[in-house]
Amino acid sequence: MFVAVVPPEPIKEELSEFLAPRDGMPWIDPEQWHLTLAFLAQVAQHRVDDLVEALERTAAKHESFELSLAGAGAFPDEFTAKVLWLAPAADMSRLAAGVRNACNSAGATPDGQRFVGHLTIARLKRSLDARKWLQVLDTFRSAPWLVEEVELVHSHLREGQSGRPRYETVASVALGSA
């Protein structure tokens, strides 16, 4: 499972149009695009309701905010890239910290990775020097959109197209509803 901000359809369409003429990269299906706030390797079924309640309490403390995508990066780095991503043009670290604390309080421990806000757009089978790709991707600027909720998503491994995961939204939690 994971907790994420999911871009609305017009943003997905805008990014899809930008990527369409750029062959040679295994672009991720737009239906899988999201900005992960917390990754939860395992969540016991009996913890899901508690997790949703904890996320609701936390989300209520965070106001809706405007977000756009601007800037590109790679994991682990641009010289040996295995993942290409776009960056949010707003600081999401406070929201991510709140979400991760909520997950912990509900007994759904997030991974220990440092939060780096990003939207993964390509996963590579072999690492490559991605500097030229990043120069191209860095020119993309999405229209802004209002983030009004976060989603708790269950990832069904290898059930999607080409063996990718299939995502199922378990709960959508409104921001600033306190």
TrEMBL record:
A motif (HXTX 2) lies at residues 118-121. The active site is at H34 (proton donor), H118 (proton acceptor). Keywords: Hydrolase, Ligase. Its EC number is 3.1.4.58. PANTHER family: RNA 2',3'-CYCLIC PHOSPHODIESTERASE (PTHR35561:SF1). HAMAP family: RNA_CPDase. Hydrolyzes RNA 2',3'-cyclic phosphodiester to an RNA 2'-phosphomonoester. This is RNA 2',3'-cyclic phosphodiesterase.
